[in-house]
């Protein structure tokens, strides 16, 4: 919009409306587009009323401006959208006269509607326009205070924009610039953005140092040009930020040699930063010029391309990579205790031999070999998970993984002291494996699959563990629940007197898809289904399929659900690179045999109460390697496999869900009625942790409300390695026929306020695992449920497990435990089994039921 006075603008605008007193019915296709998006404002009243609070979904937080007219609030929808309605929930300091505006670029604005004579409360304004940015431009206040909005909500449909190529203009030239330091007054930050290659910015001679530019508005950044002076950066990151405080790495560069270079990137931000971490000389960092190129993010201009680079947080190395240990150490230093942080990293090791490496893995860090077989990538060293960050307690070592490589530990034994959501897959340990932390503190894991451990596995303090389709040289001791299926060398069942449940084979299994290098080409290997498997699937890898990366949409932070769904509709698979992805609509997987694979615990967050992902009732979908983090507005179902009326037979080619984890709360208040619902038949759930948070941010009986962890309605569903904890009602509710579970670990919700809050149908406490009364056939092995009722230790839960008493229902090796006497169980299953034993933390068991 051209500059003009707001009064003139109002007079010239014909679309004056009277304000309705209630919301009109929304068009069915309309979605809430603004929730959780980046918001900015002309001013804020104070630090407690930022722009972000107007789009956070909470009516107890607000944005408020300085106490003058002509103030504005705007939201970046993330992509071009067709906008149909704007709802404004005013606080007492409301706008009497204001204009709703829309923009494609955040700079040139068009009016949607002008409102005069407002009376506060909630305004619901019908509009029509296309753009990425929507703004409330205040004209006159109704009170002496500023403008104040509890919520600013924009509705419509995403998409409709057009794709443009990366711009040739330098969007950074002449824009305001700052730096961490300057060498002297003659080398200011601005000199790197003045278009003059005879002037330069240079820093002090220390690491790290940075220079950044303010583009003036959030824009899609597609390429960055760097012209280094002789004092160059050897290692650096190109980063972007919406607010100049929280940064996303668009590209990490190591081993650079200076000179001129251009880097293709993908992301958005108002600020772009070059963050140097290692200098190439003894001097500081010095840049003649930095060029930033921008373009639009719509996908309507042509087909989405498969393949491409793997993004900034995938670190690909080979045995000749310099300072490799330093790279592991740097990521570990950042991620060691970042339990609810936003960093996500994937190390990919090209085939070869790596000597003297100790890769310590912190939160959201994964390490994988890029060979077709584990022995193609040999580490003469260690991959270590320990618990020094938590005073030797390993019960919170979540969200990390190791896959597809061989390991010869320096001491002869590798340490892998993990808790839930930390898979150890397709690993050849040429020695022993210690699953306990240094000092043998508490530990609560874990999962091994398709792995060969030549030596002995020592769980020691591990409370429970599941191992599938592997081989071990031996297994020593255990605490409560150690379950094995298809494991060569596994101990014999001794559940009457010990912790072991052992099945000779796994009924049905299919290993997780994985990325590998075929020469210089990335491919994803998709293993075939195995029946009655025993031992590892490699090196033969028989029956699997290799898919080239060109058949995958390589998803990077900033991608929208609209683009992701367009890629799926086009026939592409999905490879999520490490990052956090906010979604304004569910990802719709509708094609048989689609692969959805995450790297580095890629995290999907549904905004505005949408579901995260729906899978159609089709054959052979593979979901693997990602985390779903519930949003602040309640979602009905975070992951749904099959619609409610699913009925197709998928026995020959089942859908698999592997290393897919769900979190409700912990990283902030989140809510979801159901975490995972399985409606399709024959689905294999192979290692999941569905967790309603008991610690972290946004935790409380109603704050992170989540009634159900897993609901199974499909028939012939198999779960191998099922971890489900702390849900407000049933952790697992199984209504499908012929279901089977091998290994189940559970804790009941710590924060149940009292017995009345969890009493239903005359029963105190919802069973951790309930089989519906209508089911006739069900079987399960190796199940444990623990109570730790910290809010009311007097609660006596009736039972851990509840099933109908029928000849086709068979439950094997069940236990319940009171953790230190914080609550008790009266029975193990139904009305059977002895009560738990006070404060002794000793299992109460039932070996067979009925």
TrEMBL record:
CDD domains: GH55_SacteLam55A-like
Swiss-Prot/TrEMBL keywords: Signal
Source organism of this protein record: Streptomyces galbus
One Pfam family hit: F5_F8_type_C
Name of this chain's protein: Discoidin domain-containing protein
Region of interest (Disordered), ranges: 163-191
InterPro entries found in the cross-reference section: BG_Antigen-Binding_Lectin, FA58C, Galactose-bd-like_sf, SACTE_4363
Segments forming domain F5/8 type C: 21-157, 161-295
Recorded coiled-coil stretches: none
Stretches with biased composition (Polar residues): 178-187
Signal peptide extent: 1-28
